[in-house]
Write a structure and sequence with these properties.
It contains 3 helices and no strands. The chain is mostly helical. The radius of gyration is 19 Å and the shape is elongated.
Length: 88
C-alpha cells in the first residue's frame, strides 16, 4: 500500500490540494467578509453566528471541497502517467 501511495504521489497531491483550497477559501472569504466588491444587496440576517461566522464556515467547506477535488485530480493524473509509463 505504501508503494502505491508513493507511486501516485498522494502526499504531494494532498499538500498541493490543501494549499490551493486554503488560498481559494481565504480569497473568497476576504472578498465577502471585507466587502471588497461592495456591499451585498438584501437584508439577510445571520442570528446564531453572525455574518462573519457564517462565511467562515462556508470558507471551511470550500477549502475542504477544493482540497479533495484538487488532490483527486492530481492523483488520477499520476495514475494515468504511471500506467502509461508501465506499458511502454
Amino acid at each position: 500500500m505504501a508503494g502505491l501511495l508513493d507511486t501516485l504521489s498522494v502526499k504531494r497531491n494532498v499538500l498541493v490540494g490543501v494549499a490551493v483550497g486554503v488560498a481559494l477559501a481565504a480569497i473568497v472569504y476576504l472578498v465577502r467578509a471585507l466587502e471588497l466588491l461592495g456591499p451585498v444587496g438584501g437584508t439577510r440576517t445571520y442570528p446564531v453566528l453572525g455574518a462573519d461566522g457564517f462565511f467562515l464556515l462556508l470558507a471551511v467547506v470550500l477549502a475542504s471541497a477544493t482540497t479533495l477535488l484538487v488532490a483527486s485530480v492530481l492523483t488520477v493524473v499520476s495514475a494515468v502517467r504511471a500506467v502509461r509509463a508501465s506499458t511502454e
